[in-house]
Amino acid sequence: MLKIEGIAAFVAVAEAGSISEAARRLRLSKSVVSERLAEMEKTLGATLLHRTTRKLTLTEDGAAFLERASRIVHDVREAAADLARRRGTLAGPLRIAAPVTFGRMHLGPALYPFLADHPEIELTLDLDDRRVDASSDGYDAIIRHGLIADSRLVAWKLARSRRLLVASPDYLSRHGRPASLSDLENHRGIFYTNRGVADWRFQGPDGAVVIRGRLAFGVNNGDVIHDAAVAGLGLALLPVFIAGPAIGEGRLVEIDVGYWPEPEFIFMAHPEGRNPSAKLRAIADHLKKIFGDPPYWERGS
């Protein structure tokens, strides 16, 4: 008889690519995950994973079994969550990925009261600035700032996000204050490398305009971009939720070049074809309410 614990262990290992990572996600020891896999393979009479010292890969049988196994695990979790809903509670595991800076500054503080009100939800929040794959990395949802380019995701808008071109007073005193788009070509820029290009994108009366900047510093984290701008390394295009406090304190200055940066949004997105759970919808609704429209970090800015 197959056990749901063994199926869940197999799905976690297949999604994580390693027993160690699967054990971390399941909050179990590696030995327990290995034992559950071995017991399930023995029951099925099939090898589901090729094991080497460097990686795990699915066998042909494993690949065939994974689709239904994933559905079984999802359905069992949702059945348990449905029972909890009938009792008037939200319960069960939930795994979400989000950017580091937004997670630290705004997402975490917004989630704490929700989790206190729903103690049976088991939320794992992974803060990571890389563009994770929501489906293959085993996330119920991802939260991102910008645009969702992956067509396999269904996105819910949580809040709008206004960006500003900023620099430190020290940088502007040394290099001058740009007043037009053409002036930007003579300035050094600090760029978010996860976007893949060193450019500034603006909107004007005639549509979008792209200005290629001179790279002073590239990094994949919003906190470090903020700090580099405050340190006077160059111009940076930062969302108000990051730059707002430094502008208020005078450590950064907003720069007006006659055009406005392209608008962006804070999104929650879940894999297409996967029915979002009630607890995921509840978290999204809570975040929309907490962030507000306009979001609280932009009021008065």
Automatic annotation (TrEMBL):
Entry keyword set: DNA-binding, Transcription, Transcription regulation
GO process terms (BP): DNA-templated transcription
Keyword Phosphoprotein among record annotations: no
UniProt-recorded Gene Ontology molecular function terms: DNA-binding transcription factor activity; sequence-specific DNA binding
SUPFAM superfamilies: Periplasmic binding protein-like II (SSF53850), Winged helix' DNA-binding domain (SSF46785)
Superkingdom: Bacteria
Domain HTH lysR-type: 2-59
Gene3D superfamilies named among the record's database cross-references: 3.40.190.290, Winged helix-like DNA-binding domain superfamily/Winged helix DNA-binding domain
One protein family per Pfam: LysR_substrate
Family recorded in the similarity comment: Belongs to the LysR transcriptional regulatory family.
Function description: Transcriptional regulator of the ttuABCDE tartrate utilization operon.
Protein name: HTH-type transcriptional regulator TtuA
Organism: Rhizobium leucaenae
Lineage summary: Bacteria, Pseudomonadati, Pseudomonadota, Alphaproteobacteria, Hyphomicrobiales
